[in-house]
Amino acid sequence: MNLIRDIWRSIVRRDPLSTDKGKSELVFLNVWLHIHPAKVKKENMKFRHSFYLGFITFFLFLILLTTGIALMCYYRPYPPQAYQDMKDLQFAVFMGPFLRNMHRWAAHGMVVCVFLHMCRVFYTGSYKKPRQFNWVVGVVLLLLTLGLSFTGYLLPWDQLAFWAITVGSNIGSYAPIVGGQLRELLLGGHSVGEAALLRFYVLHVAVLPSALILLTIVHFWRVRKDGGLSRPVWKLKPKKTENLVTIGVPPAVAPLQTTTASKDKTYGLMEVVTGKPIFETITPEEEEDTVFSYPYAFVREAVVLMGTVTTVMVMSLFLNAPLEQLANPAKTPNPAKAPWYFLGLQELVSHSALLGGVVAPALMVLALLLIPYLDRNPSRHPADRKWILWLFTLFVVANVALIVVGTFFRGPGWALVPPWVHVTGGAE
Amino acid sequence: MERRLQQAFFTLSILALALILAAEWQANTPSWKNYQRTFLQLEAQDEPNAAAKAAVLATPLDIHQVMLTGLQRVDRCTTCHLGVDDPTLKNAPEPYRYHANLGPHIPSKFGCTICHGGQGLATDKQNAHGNVAFWPNPLLSPDYVRASCGRCHKEGDVPGVPELTEGRHLFETQGCRGCHKLNGVGGSIGPDLSEEGASTRSPDWLERHFLAPNAVSAGSAMPNFHFTKDQARALTYYMLSLTNEDMGSYYASVRLIPSPEYGRELFVEKNCIACHNVGGVGAKTGPDLLGVTKRHSPEWLDEQLVNPQLVYPGSSMPEYDLETNARKALLAFMTTATPDDAQSILSGRKTALKPEDVAIEAGKQDFARFGCVGCHGTELQGGVPNPNAQGGEVPSLLHVADDYTKDEVIAIIRDGKAPPLDNPAGPTPPLYMPSWKHVLSDEDIQRVADYLWSKQQKKESW
Predict the structure, then answer these.
(1) What DSSP letter does each residue of B9-49 carry, written as one string?
(2) Which residue ranges make up each domain of chain B?
(3) Domain spanning B146-252: which CATH class is it, in words?
(4) Which of A63, A310, A311 to mutate against chain B (most B CBs within 10 Å)?
(5) Which end of chain B has the least Cβ crowding within 10 Å, N or C?
(6) pLDDT for position A271
C-alpha cells in the first residue's frame, strides 16, 4: 500500500483540500490550473460583470478541437470525395450527424461569443491601461476565429460552401494592388477548386488552430499578468490612481531593510524589486473581499462549461447542419452569399466594391486594433465615456443590421426581398 | 449560492450524459434496421426448425453497399432492398422483392441508382429515394426508368427503348443544336443540354416543355415545334439520358450496339452513297466499297473514318464526327454490304446523284447537324416566330441569292448577325444568328453556302 501511496503522493503533492494551503496549492502546483490566481475577488466572479463570455468562447473552442479531430478521421480534402465523406457522416458513420452538428453549431457559436466578448470588454472599458495589448491580442484572436470559420466553411464541398467561399474570396480581391494576388495565394489558383480545398484544409486543421492556441495562451497569460479580470464597473473607485501603488523604494532613498514595505500585496514577485508594478494590485481592504479560486471560481467555470456543452448538444440533436448539392462551378446560385458573418461586407460591396471590400474592413480592423491607444481617457466609468460608448454601439448596430439585411432581406440578383416573400425560380 | 452552483453543475452533467445517450440512441435506431429485422423474420419463416430460425434471426444488422468505382458511386440501396438478387423472393413484398429481367445488369456490377436515380449513399427511405431538398436526382418513375439506358448506351438502338433512338433522331434533325450546346457543339441561345439529365427538372416538366415551351417557362425563346405526345416523350427520354457522367470503361464499352443494321442507317444518314459506290452501284467520286474490309485492316478503316487526311493526304472525304461504336457499326455494315443494298439505298433517295452533290450533301449534313434547321426549317422555309425582328419571324433562306452574294452569306454565317428590328424602340428579338466561325471550318461554311445555293428558287420575273 505504501507503494501506491508513494506513487499518488508523487503525482499529487498538495496538502488536503480541507486546508487553505491545500486549496492554493491545488492551483499553484497544477500545470493546467496555475493560469488561475490562488485567490480571486468575489465581485469579479459575478455573472453580470463578464457573462463568462471569454470562458464560453474557450469552451466552444475545446468542443471544436475535440469534434474537429474526430471529424478529421472521416474526411478526405479533395473533391468530390470530400462531399461523399459528408454524406457518409450523414448516413453511415455512427453518430456522424451529431458529431458534425456539434462542430457546426459550436463554430457559429464561437464567432458570436467572441464578438460578444469583445463588446463586453469594450463596454466595461477593460481594454484600458494596463490591458491595452491584451485587447490587441483579442482582436487578432477574433480575426483568427473568423479565418477558422471561413476556411471550415469550404470543407463540405457543397454548393453552399463553394459559392460562399467564391463570394467571400472575391470580396478580398477588391484590395488594391495585392488583392488579386492574395486571393490567388489563398485559393492556389484563380477560382475555388481542388487546390483551394487543400489549402483551406491545411489552414483549418493546422495553421490557424496552432496560431489560435498560441495566442490564446498569450491572452490568458496576459489576463493574469495584467492583474486578473478587470473590476466590475460598479466597483470602481472614484480615483483610479489609488489602485496603482509603489512597492519597494525609490533608488535614491535609504537601503531596503529600513524601508517599510508597502501594505499592498502583489502576487508573483520572486524578489523585492523597486519601481511601480505594471499590473493592477489589490489593497488589504480588497484582500478581505477575495476567496480561493478553488472551489469558488472553479465551480462557476464548471457550470459554464457544462452549460455550454449541453446547449451545443441540444442544438446538435435537433438541428442538422446544412448540406446542399455537390459543388458545381457551372451553376451559380442566385443570390450567391458569403458566410453570414461576412454578409455585412457583401452588403457593402453590393453598393461599392472599394468601400465594402477594402475601406470598410480595413478601417474596422485598424480601428479595433488601435482603440486602446486612441482612447486616451483613463476613466472606466460609463459616465465619463459617453460619446465613445455611443460610437461603439453604432458600430455594433451597423454591423448587425448589415448582416441581418444581407442574410434575410436579399433575394435573387441581390434585390431587396423580405424574408416572408418566397421567390421561386432563381437561376432557372 | 455555492450549494446551488454545485447542484447546477451536477444537474447539467447528468443532462449532458443524458444527451449523449439520446444521441447514441438516435444513432442506434436508424430505420434501415427495422427493415432488416422484418426481412430476417420473413426469411426465418421458411426455415424448417427452431435452431435454423434462431440462426437467421441472429444475423447481424449491417449497412450493405455496392462500391461502383467505375461509376463513381456507392449504392446502399441493398441495405433495405435485400432481395434484389434472390429469385426466390420474386413475390416478396417491397422493399424485399427480387428484381427480374436485369439481364447482364447485375446489381453487384451496376448498383441501382445508375438506372433508377435516387441517392445511393443514403440509408433512410426519404433521403435514399431522393425526395429531399438539395438532391437533384430523385427516383425516376417507372415510366421513365428506361431513359437511363441511354447513359451507357449512348449510340444506336437500345433494345426495348425505341424512345431513345427516336429522341436522338429528333434532336439531330430538328435543329436543336442551333440554340443548344450538347457536348461542346451547338449554339448558345438556349441552355447547354450536356447535363440536362442531371438537372433538377422533372421528366414531367421536360415533357410539358416540349409540347409547349411557353406554358412551363414563360418568355422562353424556344419555338413551339408542335411535337406529338410520343415525340415529346422521346425527347424527354433523350434529355434524361444526358448526364455527362464519366461512366468508366467497363460501362462505356457497350458490346451490344455496333450492328450492321445500325451501320446501314448511318450509311444512309451520312449519305456515303453520294461519293461512294458498292460494286459499281452509286457515285464514282470515291472508291468502290465492295470488299473494302478485306482490302484494309479494321484499324486502317477506323482511322480513315476519323481522320481521312491522315490516311490519304488530299482526300476529299469529309471528317465525320462518329463515335467509336458508330464507326464499328459502319464497318460491320461494310463487311456485308452488297450492290443490292446500294441499289435500295439509292432508290430511297429523293433526287438522282450529281457530281456536285458531294459538297452539297456535306453542306446539308452540316446544316442539319449544327442546328441551322431549328430556326431556318428543314426545307429552308424559315417561319419560326421571332417577335420584333423584321417580318416577325426567322427569314426563309429559299431566296437568299436574290439579296446577297455567296461571299456575303459566308460572312454572315462566319460572324453572325443580329436581326434588323421591326420597331427600333421595341425589345431585342429573342433569336439571332450566332457566329459559327469557332464551330465550323471555312470549308464547312463554303459547303453550307453551296447547299443553300443548290436550293435557291428563281424569283418570278416580271
Answers:
(1) HHHHHHHHHHHHHHHHHHHH--HHHHHHHHHHHHHHHT-SS
(2) 35-139, 146-252, 260-353, 358-454
(3) mainly alpha
(4) A310
(5) C
(6) 52
Beta-bridge mates of residue B288:
B277
The set of cell numbers assigned to B222 is 424556344
Rounded mean pLDDT, A135-150:
96
Write out pLDDT tens, residues A63-91.
999 999 999 999 999 988 999 999 999 99
Query: Best interface-test mutation with B: which of A67, A99, A303 has the largest number of B CBs within 10 A?
Result: A303
Domains of chain A, by residue range, sit at 33-234+292-414
Interface mutation target, options B2, B19, B127, chain A, most CBs of A under 10 Å? B19
Please give, rounded to a whole number of angstroms, the shortest distance from the CA of A170 to a CA of chain B.
25
Structure-block grid coordinates of residue B184 = 461542346
pLDDT of residue A371: 93
Cβ atoms of B16 and A309 within 8 Å: the answer is yes
Nearest to B66 by CA among B14, B95, B109: B109
From the list A155, A186, A158, the residue with the least C-alpha distance to A171 is A186
Q: Cβ contact (<8 Å) for A428 and B217?
A: yes
Secondary structure of residue B440 in the 3-state scheme = coil
Q: Whole-prediction pTM value? A: 0.77
Write down the mean pLDDT value for chain B: 84
Q: Pseudo-torsion of CA B188, B193, B195, B200, nearest 10°?
A: 100
Query: Is B19 within 8 Å of A303 when comparing Cβ atoms?
Result: no
Tell me the pLDDT tens digit for each residue of B185-196: 787 888 889 888
Number of H helices, E strands in chain A: 17, 2
- Type of residue numbered A30: N
Q: The domain B260-353 belongs to what CATH superfamily?
A: Cytochrome c-like domain (1.10.760.10)
Q: What average pLDDT does range B47-75 have in this prediction?
A: 90
A418 φ/ψ angles, rounded to the nearest 5 degrees: -65, 150
Q: How far is CA A163 from CA A34, A340, A367, B190, in A?
A: 45, 12, 30, 24
How far away is chain B from the Cα of A258, in angstroms, using its nearest Cα? 45
Categorize the per-residue pLDDT at B15 as very low, low, confident or very high, splitting at 50, 70 and 90.
very high
Residues in chain B: 462
What whole-number distance in Å separates Cα of residue B365 and Cα of residue B321? 11
- Picking from A96, A197, A191, the residue whose alpha carbon sits closest to that of residue A155 is A197
Q: Which A-chain residues 292-331 have CB contacts (< 8 A) with chain B? A: 295-296, 299-300, 302-303, 306-307, 309-310, 313-314, 316-317, 323-325
- pLDDT bracket for residue B239 (50, 70, 90): very high
Place of cell 475545446: A62
Tallying the residues shown for chain A, one arrives at 428
Contact yes or no for B2 and A299 at CB 8 A: yes
CATH topology identical between B260-353 and B358-454? yes
User: Do A314 and A307 contact (CB within 8 A), yes or no?
Assistant: no
- The CATH number for A33-234+292-414, chosen from 2.30.110.10, 1.20.1250.20, 1.10.10.10, 1.20.810.10, is 1.20.810.10
How many contacts does A have with B, using Cβ atoms within 8 A? 72
Whether A171 and A342 have beta carbons less than 8 Å apart is answered as yes
Identity of the residue in A91, A94, A296 whose CB atom sits nearest the CB atom of B122? A91
- Residue A223, all three cell numbers: 489576463
Q: Is the pLDDT of residue A343 over 50?
A: yes
Give per-residue pLDDT as tens, A267-309.
444 455 566 666 666 666 667 788 998 889 999 999 999 999 9
Q: Which of A27-31, A57-61, B86-90, B397-401 has the lowest mean pLDDT?
A: B397-401
